[in-house]
Amino acid sequence: MSTRTTASRCRALLGVALGVTIAWPAVVAAEPPPPRDWQLSLMAYGWAPTIQADYDGTIAGQDFERTFQTDFGDVFDDWDIGAGAALNFRYMRFVMLLDGVWVQSEEDTRLQGVDLDGYVTNVVADGKIGFRVLDMPTPWAQSPTTVESPRWAIDLLAGARYWWVRADPLDLEGKIAGPYDVQTDVDWVDPIVGGRLILELIPQLYLSLVGDVGGFGIGNGSELTWMVHPMLNWRPFERVSFHAGYKHLRADGRDGPSTGKSMDFELSGPMVGLGFHF
Q1: Looking at the predicted structure, is the pLDDT value of residue 37 above 50?
Q2: For a 10 Å CB count at each end of the chain, is N or C smaller?
Q3: How far is CA 160 from CA 23, 52, 157, 194, 247, in A?
Q4: Residue 146, phi then psi, degrees to nearest 5
Q5: CATH number of the domain at 3-277, out of 3.40.50.720, 2.40.128.100, 1.10.10.10, 1.10.940.10?
Q6: 159, 128 Cβ separation under 8 angstroms
């Protein structure tokens, strides 16, 4: 491990420790949540992300560097839309967030005289548990003492993200004698820390923002991963809600399978969902 990598990890861990130290007084002094002991919701959603993947590999004993990238035109032309599901649970101050999504993108590129045709599949799943450090009425709440009044809340979160990527298959024809069918799988787990902000505009409409950072080169994880997920949530019915937002995921510095070289992945795009409340 290089001196630069070690220093980078130390800075990241010191930053996490500093954040926990700063947030701890707020945890101790936090007001208890309103008298709604528990909440449980499930959401099914569609996601249309663009994909960027930068990695090194080997074809027939030859090393190469490669970038795979799609734009929104590619996403909708090829109908490369992913499907996911999320669970959101709260009991008093304890919160839990689970999320999993599957995305497959068609790949039809040419690299150094070689035709690469196939699919890139991403499966990303993360789980976080946390503590609600703040839950109070918004400044514009007309009746702050009622349960129905708009509120805002902040959660501190920690957990892990699992990422699985497959290139399946890549049919290679051109300068390399073949054809070759190459199927490459790689997966890893990143520890993550983050937070969530919930801001109710009116009782039926609220904004949420979930963000996290992690990896830090721990275990088989990436050097750095991060996510930003803003969303607008509308709940016109007691049991059903509608959601629209944007989700951005990135992982940098993941060692590639068998090559020991770096792999970077990014998924970023709009999403819409349908929620059910219990």
Answers
A1: yes
A2: N
A3: 20, 22, 10, 11, 17
A4: -90, 150
A5: 2.40.128.100
A6: yes
d(CA 191, CA 218): 8
How far apart CA 161 and CA 77 sit, in angstroms, is 30
Long-range contacts at 178-185 (CB < 8 A, ≥ 24 apart): 178/60, 180/59, 180/60, 182/59, 184/57, 184/257, 185/257
* Structure confidence at residue 196 as a pLDDT band (50, 70, 90): very high
Q: What dihedral do alpha carbons 175, 180, 181, 183 form, nearest 10°? A: -80
Summarize pLDDT for 113-135 with one digit per residue, the tens. 555 566 778 899 999 999 999 99
Residues 66/117/221/9 CA torsion (nearest 10 deg): 20
d(CA 145, CA 60): 70
Domain coordinates in residue numbering, the chain: 3-277
* Strand spans (E) along the chain: 38-47, 50-59, 62-69, 82-91, 94-111, 114-137, 151-174, 180-202, 205-215, 224-234, 240-255, 262-277
Average pLDDT over residues 174-186: 54
Residue 134 CB contacts under 8 Å (≥ 6 apart), including other chains: 26, 30, 31, 152, 153, 154
Which contacts (CB < 8 Å, 24+ apart) does range 6-15 have? 8/217, 8/223, 9/216, 9/217, 12/216, 12/224, 13/216
Average pLDDT value for residue range 75-100: 87
* Mean pLDDT, range 82-105, rounded to an integer: 94
Instruction: Please determine, for residue 55, whether its predicted confidence score (pLDDT) is greater than 80.
Output: no
- Token pair 């787990």 is found at 189
Quote the pLDDT of residue 231: 98
Percent of the chain with pLDDT over 70: 62
